[in-house]
Amino acid sequence: MRFSLLIILGIFCLCTSTYAQTPATTPTTGTIKGIVRDTAHNYVLKSATVSIYRADSSVLNYQLSNNYGEFKFTNVPIGQILRIDVSNVGYETFRQKITIPKGETLLDLKTLIINPRNETLKEVVISIPPITYNNDTLEINAAAFKLDSNATVEDLLKKVPNITVWGDGIITVNGKEVKSLLVNGKQFFDGDNKVTLQNIPKNALEKIQIFNNADRNNPLDSNLVANLKLKKGKDRSYFGKIGLGYGTDNHYQLDGNINFTTPKLQLAIIGATNDVNKTPNDINTLVRNSTFKGTGTSVEYQPDFRQAGINKGTVAGAKMSYNFTPDSKEWNNKSSLSADYYFKNIESINNSQNQNITTLSSNNKIYSFSENTSVNNSESHRQNSQFNYFKKNHQIDISETFSTDNSNSVQTNIRNASDNNNQTTSTNNGSSTNNTENQNFNLRANYSYNNYNNWKQRFKGFTLGYNLSMNNRNNDRNEITEFRDLLTPALKRDFNRNYQTNTKSFNQNINLAIRDLKSLFFGNKNLSNFNGEFTAKLDIDNNKNKNQVSDLNGSTYLTNDYLSNNLQTNQAIFTPGLSISKSFYKNLSNRYNKNLSFRLAAAQQLSYQDNKSIKSFQNINRNYNNFVPTASISYSNYQYGTHQTSISLNYNTQVIIPTVNQLAPLTDSTNLYNLQRGNINLTEAKTKSLNLSIYRYDMRNKNTLNFSANASIGLTEDAIIDSSFIDARNRRNNYLANADGTKYARLYGDVRKSLKFKSSELKFGYTTSFNVNRTPNYLNGVFNFSNNTSTENKISTNYTFKDKFALEGSQSIGTSSSKQKSLNTAYKNTTLTSALSANYNFTKKLSLNSNVSFNNNNPSVGETVNFTIWNAEANYRFTKGNNIELKLSALDLLKQNRAIFNFAGTNTFTTSTRNVLQQYFMVTLSYYPRKFGNNTAVKK
After folding, report:
1. pLDDT at residue 870 above 90?
2. What is the pTM of this model?
């Protein structure tokens, strides 16, 4: 059924595209061409605005005349009365009615003569052309496009020829993606396209400015920027959403968002509460999903039927940004301040069952079962602020984060283990209560000095960064455990243990980079484009851990002298480095830019670790000295108006230093199924990796093909691995050891094919990921390798028709497997998901949305599980401003939702089931307040 669904979807899309592209027997469209010439000076005019209008004065198409004054329009309807306007700065507008005669496909207007404007006239009637060209900036005039009073900027962009707003929210101009969307020259609520396009009314917009902004770090590269210039006074506004919903089984949801803007200030206030697994992780999620208007198939803030447990959440917060220089037109003269506060409270009930198979040898397996119930309550507060100062050659960025997290939980678990004969060998049941208070503070400061404008000065610049992180964590925990050995009852163990733990950390990081050493030492000498950079990194960490443990003895808790401990770890890592780079350039004006760069860096990592404890065996001092070189090759090929390709290859070295808890831990005996031991002889592990990245961007107007791929391989010398000893009762002692042989390979890629037709857009996408690793380990003294593989492949199709209809379909397949040749074991799990989402706007007030996913979970051990999740909703907008909405929602219509998680480990396979949200129906009423500009009386 799933594959049939996707086949039908594919046929539909192909039929749509075929219909859109196949011409009828009699041609219905033709071509109009001509040349624009100045009558006074008798020369051709380049960059003149040529516009074609329909009979109702709506814009059909527009373009700028080329360097020879030529223009050419294709796909123009035959037999219809049209109007052509030609305009340019300092000239009168040329206007003429035109028609491509029936039976012909070409109308050649020859030479169109426009006259210079006579500035001495008392009255000059100036019509507004749809586009103008001003100093490398394309300007689109909003007044040239007639839309209804409730239209948004998104509605306007969909009417502008050569601009496409795709179903996934990406904006392209002549096939090139807009990387930055600004409002009056600055970001609008973090620069989110959805918030900008679907809230700002078209009537508040004066013009759209489109230009290329050079990348200061790579002058050969540039990003396409679109700036929405609002009418005077329209930069003072408010907009948002207030929604209330109630459903079956007493389900509820309430959410609100209100946003305010002034020329300098942007402020957002949010709040939400519900019991249907809708838990936004930040303020932006609610801001994005409370927009006034939009057509699409995906909604970010919606009930999560895949989330484990039943969750009640309450969130509230606010964020602001203040621009000190809103009118500055200089890119290097800007200062801003932003801050936000976020509160989140979550109550959750989780039930789970886990079945696990552990292979000890080819004919010996241990089967375990566990059932867990937990009730959790957490409350968190998070505050962030960021200050940016940019003045000519100086740039300062300062940011800080402060957060507090308080949580408490009660958990019970029932666990047992059995042998090959299905005989239970042991049980390990328990309960725990946990109360945690946690405070974090982070400070980040960066200063950058750049002086590339002064070619006489040798010292071009440097970057200095400082990071500070402080943490204070208090934890009170009680663990009650009953272990029963059914083979030897005398080995039973009971624990009732209290833990009081206080952990404090104070970590600092300093980074220094001095760039352009060539200029510093050799001035303006070319040196065959060789250059250098000096870097230095210093990490200083101080961690204190105070752990007070006591055991119940009769009716009194007595101190556990072994587990109670005071431990302090001081660690310093200094990494100086020197890099040499060389670049090759080749370019042809307005044709192409090519660049090939090499970079080699030599760095030495000097590490010192000092552990002080009341336990003598944890008083460990160690020094480490490692060479950590890096290297990179990058190539870019920028073909103007056609495509851009980038390829990079990087080699890196990373050192992992063993911690005191790996070298000499204090082993807690409450969980006999997992006793963690250490190894004082552990050495540092060194990972060497090679990373390849490929990126191609298509800049054609239609039928674009874009792709990217990232691949990496790596191996680890002296990797820190597990050495486990497991007995028939599933009691485990996990030691650590160093071993060679750890290898991995990863691949991620995506391909996107876009097709644009007269009234619709079609996108195809394919993403793939592949991960394989070879991990050594010891099991009961026998050395073996575990080969683990996971894959994820997804094909998706997104189709939109005007602002009426959107359809998205996808098919994904995920696999995970684990093989141990020496143990003669192989575990595998396959997950298939087919999804279809649709949105249809019957009118501007009534719309219907639905999505369905077919899920198949097929493990190599255990039952195959199939279930379908089907959601649907109907939305009706009323009032003159379309700003009140009534929504009817039906979630999990078939009541089949299940949570199945299968995982293949080193020598284990686990199947887990959990409680999840299931079917409910809800009615929601929402109000969308929106106002741009002040109510001011018109002076007569």
Report:
1. yes
2. 0.82
